[in-house]
Amino acid sequence: MSGGRKVDGRTGGSRTAQQYDPLGAMGSRPLAVVIGAGGVLWATLVSLFDRDVVGAPTVSALTVLLLAASAVVVISASSPFRAPFTRWAFVAHVALLSAATVTSAAAQWGPDRSLVNDFMVLLSAIGIVAVAPYRPWTDLVVGGAVLAAVDAATAGTVAAVYPAGVPVSVGAFLAAAPTLVLTAASAVFARTFAGLAERVQIRAGSYSVERAERDGITASVQQDRSTILARDVAPFFAELRTRASISDADRERARAIADGIRQVMVAEADRTWLEYAVRVSGDAAATVHDPDGLAAAMDADQRTVVRTFVRALLHAATVDPAGVRVTVAPVGGLAPGLGADGPALRATTRPRVAMTFDVAVADSDVGIHRTFDPYFAVLRVTFPDTDVAVRPSSLTLRFSYDQH
Q1: CA-to-CA distance for 341 and 213, rounded, in angstroms?
Q2: 345: helix, coil or strand?
Q3: How do strand 387-391 and strand 352-361 relate by DSSP bridges?
Q4: CA dihedral angle for residue 310, residue 315, residue 321, residue 323, rounded to 10 degrees
Q5: What are the residues whose beta carbons fall under 8 Å from the beta carbon of 120, sequence distance 6 or more?
Q6: pTM for the full model?
Q7: Quick one: which of 345, 344, 342, 392 has its CA closest to 365?
Q8: Pairing of β 342-346 and β 335-339
Q9: Looking at per-residue confidence, does 208 or 61 come out higher?
Q10: How far apart are CA 270 and CA 284, in angstroms?
Q11: In this structure, are residues 331 and 295 in contact, taking their beta carbons and an 8 Å threshold?
């Protein structure tokens, strides 16, 4: 996710906190759950026990259902397995809150003697805060402005029909103020976070990850050569020094040692960063099938994410490296784009590559999710078409990417 890299026709400036920090957004999801459930509970209690007028119970029930639907949308769309939070989900969330604001006023149509029981004034504002990690700041501003306008129009209408001793404009402003304030705060958070993340990634990109990988592979080649020298070449020369002449057997042995060195050099030259990552993650028993070296087509950010997952996978106590198979192969079709609006198919002239992990895991499906959910969340944001199939004792993960 390097700075300035275009994604689905957008630059990083339109990306969200969830896309820059999927694990952080995953950690904030319980807050969205609590806000949604708390809002429904508050609306229910106020509608039952603390209203200015008796009102229409049926419309009050509709208000609670609209709030519940809004909470379900946020909880569902904020799931790391549906990342990123789409614009359609955000629009549905704002529309449901707007409808609930109108039905709340209609259900208790009459003089507004107490601001304490006007729960939609605050729930509209908190509704924007709940989705701040998931949408860009521009969307938050538009959504907040819509909710504030609905709050002002509803409260202004009630104040005009049932005067409360203050000008209609003042009543409308007081109803919209919480939403305006929290929308401004949410937008500042989203914009500041995205800006800082963008700058951090630009600075991080100044250090070449590819160069670091080359250095690591070079060190591996040198280590293997040193092993051959210490194990085969040095003892052989030591023996030759003690002999008066060189026999045909000695020549054959020298030829075999030279062939061995040449084979190691060829194998190391053909080894991709993925094979190196599997090797240094603990066990060479894992299988990588990448005959065309297509793993090299990933960019530096994608490699970082995959390397982290590989390390976690091979270090997991329930995973036997011998039961891990990684397949890299070319694929065709449309490419999934990832912008602030979420995954969407887009035309591409670049060939696509699919990477598939088939893993035997000595654990239940619940245990597999518990162990790898954070990594699935990051993969899902980095590769929008990530498909995860979890079964008892088995994990299959597949995603694709452009050849860069």
Answers
A1: 33
A2: strand
A3: unpaired
A4: -80
A5: 43, 63, 97, 100, 101, 104, 105, 151, 154
A6: 0.60
A7: 392
A8: antiparallel
A9: 61
A10: 16
A11: no
Cα–Cα distance for residue pair 120/155, rounded to 1 Å: 11
Q: Two tokens at 18?
A: 């969830």
Is the bond preceding residue 133 a cis peptide, omega within 30 degrees? Answer: no
Please name the residue that has the structure tokens 């057997």.
249
Instruction: Indicate if the pLDDT at residue 322 is higher than 60.
Output: yes
Tell me the C-alpha distance between 284 and 305, whole Å: 20
State the Cα–Cα distance between residues 303 and 329, nearest whole angstrom. Answer: 16
Q: What is the pLDDT of residue 100?
A: 93
User: pLDDT tens-digit profile of 88-129?
Assistant: 999 999 999 999 999 988 888 766 666 556 788 899 999 999
Give the span between the Cα atoms of 99 and 32, in whole angstroms.
20
- Find out whether 16 and 132 touch, Cβ atoms under 8 Å: no
Structure confidence by residue, pLDDT tens digits, 6-24: 443 334 446 777 777 676 6
CA 140 to chain centroid: 19
Residues 163-177 have pLDDT tens digits of: 777 788 888 898 899
DSSP secondary structure, 272-320, as one string: -HHHHHHHHTT-TTSEEE-TT-GGGGS-HHHHHHHHHHHHHHHH-TTEE
What pLDDT was estimated at residue 118? 78
Q: If 0-12 CB within 10 Å is exposed, 13-18 middle and 19+ buried, where does residue 184 land?
A: middle
Q: What's the Cα-to-Cα distance from 4 to each of 1, 19, 68, 212, 214, rounded to whole Å?
A: 9, 14, 39, 22, 25
Instruction: Give the separation between CA 279 and CA 352, rounded to whole angstroms.
Output: 25
Average pLDDT over residues 37-59: 80
pLDDT value at 302 more than 90: no
What's at 225, amino acid-wise? Answer: R
pLDDT score at 134: 87
Measured in residues, the chain has a length of 404
Q: How far apart are CA 28 and CA 24, in angstroms?
A: 6
For residues 384 and 83, give the distance between their C-alpha atoms in angstroms, rounded to a whole number: 8
**Helix, strand or coil for residue 402?**
strand
Backbone angles phi, psi at 391, to 5 degrees: -135, 160
